[in-house]
From TrEMBL:
<feature type="transmembrane region" description="Helical">
    <location>
        <begin position="83"/>
        <end position="109"/>
    </location>
</feature>
<keyword id="KW-0997">Cell inner membrane</keyword>
<keyword id="KW-1278">Translocase</keyword>
<dbReference type="Pfam" id="PF00664">
    <property type="entry name" value="ABC_membrane"/>
</dbReference>
<dbReference type="InterPro" id="IPR011527">
    <property type="entry name" value="ABC1_TM_dom"/>
</dbReference>
<dbReference type="InterPro" id="IPR003593">
    <property type="entry name" value="AAA+_ATPase"/>
</dbReference>
<feature type="transmembrane region" description="Helical">
    <location>
        <begin position="271"/>
        <end position="297"/>
    </location>
</feature>
<keyword id="KW-0812">Transmembrane</keyword>
<keyword id="KW-0547">Nucleotide-binding</keyword>
<feature type="domain" description="ABC transporter">
    <location>
        <begin position="360"/>
        <end position="593"/>
    </location>
</feature>
<feature type="transmembrane region" description="Helical">
    <location>
        <begin position="44"/>
        <end position="63"/>
    </location>
</feature>
<dbReference type="Pfam" id="PF00005">
    <property type="entry name" value="ABC_tran"/>
</dbReference>
<dbReference type="GO" id="GO:0005524">
    <property type="term" value="F:ATP binding"/>
</dbReference>
<dbReference type="InterPro" id="IPR003439">
    <property type="entry name" value="ABC_transporter-like_ATP-bd"/>
</dbReference>
<feature type="domain" description="ABC transmembrane type-1">
    <location>
        <begin position="44"/>
        <end position="329"/>
    </location>
</feature>
<feature type="region of interest" description="Disordered">
    <location>
        <begin position="1"/>
        <end position="25"/>
    </location>
</feature>
<dbReference type="InterPro" id="IPR027417">
    <property type="entry name" value="P-loop_NTPase"/>
</dbReference>
Length: 596
């Protein structure tokens, strides 16, 4: 018989010493680290693009030489003409071959990097403590695996090649123009300073403005979610107009901020684009160049060829500006990916030990999520093999936290949690989960058949075995009533209520047949009629197993071998139902009120 114990309650204590924040990583450093596996290929592609850039200038040089040859006094040198033609063809071929080859190399590099990053994400997620997933939504993981990696596509597959071309082409062009006449070189870039100054004005404070816009969009999204999720309550109390006004106000505020930022910037952008537009470049080069020809400084054919080169310089330069936003997004994505990769993983023991038996012990356990506020303090409990222990207490008392320490969702801050006499930190994760099964409040069902959802832990289980577990969880009849029975797909032709989904997850835990079960509010969504049947199934399941259950209704755990009352992270009472009610303490008052 378990004796009744009443223990004093202290206020939560802060853990001594400040929490050490992980060192920040700059976006540039993040990019360097993530792009390291494809850096060699990227450099090869950049070298190929340099060749393509110089080849781009060859046709313009050849046209100038062809003009000089055709306008020369005397008979036309046909052999020289054909030589120039072949030089043009060769230049165009080199440009196409090396330019296309550079893009092919970077696209293959992008595919390789995506594969590396996705494998790294999968590996990281597999090593994270299960508690990490309770504080991070599936949307964040999906964003990392899809959106963030997708944002890096431009950076890897295009940015390096395009930026190299944008730098190399003007340099090669200027080198040629300077070789012709330095005054024509100055003329070729005469409008470039206007673009540079205008672009600098446009991008000033852009980071802060982008952050402001992101906050505005987040506010709009929040009001949309609030309105949609609360539509029933809003309509019931006739507050539709008021709820919609919050969305309208958020959208209007963001739109006004965006308009105030973009409107003046558009005028500057128009000036910058006009400075490098073909008509303006032609007007400046041909207008001023004509005066140079008239003065006898340069020849007309030299002016013609350098003007053609001057026209390709703006195209190369503006491509850098067009890719700037994509590079910013890629840099931000790289930072988010590194943040995911830097999440503390679950340490695996170098020399794993094997538990002997199924008794669970909490020995002086203390725990804190953030290293400052203590959630659990000095927890000493023994969950003997083949018994049911129920955790009760007010909301925030630490029941769920204590239960999740057994399957090692988190590692304890102090003390130890032992399974079969072995610290759970010394048991390999895969073996630990073969010994410990759990059913949580937040049920997660995959978009697969009901059959595959239940036999997730035992993929080789046959239908009869699965149905046996489902019957024990009181969900078999509901599944058989589905259009395709156990082959019905969750989310398509299998739509479960909260209580039904909970029973599917209970069936999954029953099928896993682990010697230790952690049930966090396992009957929270069960209707009163089926709750008794579920409790009966769990009672049968507890034979020769260790069960830790967080009670939603006190009536559901009156038959537990041990009831533990938590308050403010400490054990304040323990004993059987009869012992605790007779003691007249915290549990007795909860029982009288019918609350937990």
């Amino acid at each position: 018989m378990t004796s009744t114990q009443t223990l004093p309650v202290d206020e939560p204590r802060a853990v001594d010493g400040p929490a050490a924040d992980p060192p920040g990583t700059t976006e540039r450093a993040a990019l360097r680290e993530l792009l390291a596996p494809v850096r060699t290929r990227t450099r090869v592609a950049m070298a190929m693009q340099v060749v393509a850039a110089f080849a781009t200038i060859v046709p313009y040089v050849a046209i100038a030489e062809l003009g000089k040859t055709l306008l020369a006094a005397g008979p036309v040198d046909s052999e020289r003409v054909w030589t120039i033609v072949w030089v043009v063809v060769t230049g165009l071929g080199l440009r196409a071959g090396f330019g296309g080859g550079a893009l092919m190399v970077t696209h293959f590099a992008d595919v390789r990097l995506q594969a590396i990053l996705r494998r790294r994400i999968a590996t990281t997620l597999g090593r994270l403590p299960l508690g990490w997933f309770t504080t991070h939504s599936s949307g964040q993981v999906r964003k990392a695996a899809q959106n963030d990696i997708g944002d890096m596509h431009y950076l890897v597959a295009h940015s390096a090649v395009e930026t190299t071309g944008a730098v190399a082409v003007p340099l090669a062009g200027l080198a040629y123009v300077i070789s012709v006449d330095w005054r024509l070189a100055l003329l070729a870039v005469a409008t470039l300073p206007v673009y540079v100054v205008a672009y600098a004005v446009m991008t000033r404070g852009m980071t802060e403005k982008m952050e402001e816009m992101n906050r505005g969009l987040a506010a709009i999204s929040a009001t949309v979610v609030e309105f949609v999720t609360g539509i029933a309550v809003v309509k019931t109390f006739g507050q539709t107009r008021r709820a919609h006004s919050r969305y309208r106000d958020a959208a209007t505020e963001t739109a006004q901020a965006y308009d105030g930022w973009v409107r003046p910037m558009l005028r500057t952008e128009a000036l910058a684009s006009m400075a490098l537009s073909a008509p303006v470049v032609l007007l400046v080069n041909l207008g001023v160049g004509a005066l140079m020809v008239q003065a006898g400084w340069v020849s007309a054919i030299d002016l013609f060829s350098t003007t053609l080169v001057a026209l390709i310089i703006p195209v190369a330069v503006t491509s850098i500006g067009f890719g700037m936003q994509a590079r910013r997004e890629a840099s931000a994505a790289a930072g988010r990916l590194l943040e995911l990769f830097g999440a503390p993983t679950l340490p695996e023991p170098e020399r794993p030990r094997h538990p002997v038996g199924h008794t669970v012990e909490f020995d002086g356990v203390g725990f804190s999520y953030d290293g400052r506020t203590t959630v659990l303090s000095e927890i000493d409990l023994e969950l003997r093999q083949g018994t049911v222990t129920a955790l009760v207490g007010p909301s925030g008392s630490g029941k769920s936290t204590l239960a999740t320490l057994v399957p090692r969702f988190h590692d304890v801050t102090s003390g130890a949690v032992r399974l079969g006499g072995v610290d759970v930190r010394e048991i390999a994760s895969d073996e630990l989960y073969r010994h410990v099964g759990f059913v949580l409040q937040d049920v997660q069902l995959l978009r697969e058949s009901v059959l595959d959802n239940i036999r997730l832990a035992r993929p080789d289980a046959d239908l009869d075995t699965v149905r046996s577990a489902a019957r024990a969880a009181r969900i078999d009849d509901r599944i058989m009533a589905l259009p395709r029975g156990y082959d019905s797909v969750v989310g398509e032709d299998a739509l479960f209520s909260g209580g039904e989904a909970q029973r599917v997850s209970i069936a999954r835990a029953l099928l896993a047949d682990t010697p230790v079960l952690v049930l966090d509010e396992a009957t929270a969504f069960a209707d009163p009629e089926s709750e008794a049947d579920i409790q009966a199934a769990l009672t049968r399941l507890a034979v020769d197993r260790t069960v830790l259950v967080i009670a939603h209704r006190l009536s559901s755990i009156v038959g537990a071998d041990q009831i533990v009352v938590l308050d403010r992270g400490r054990v304040v009472e323990r004993g059987s139902h009869d012992e605790l009610t007779a003691a007249g303490g915290r549990y007795a008052r909860m029982w009288e009120r019918g609350t937990n």
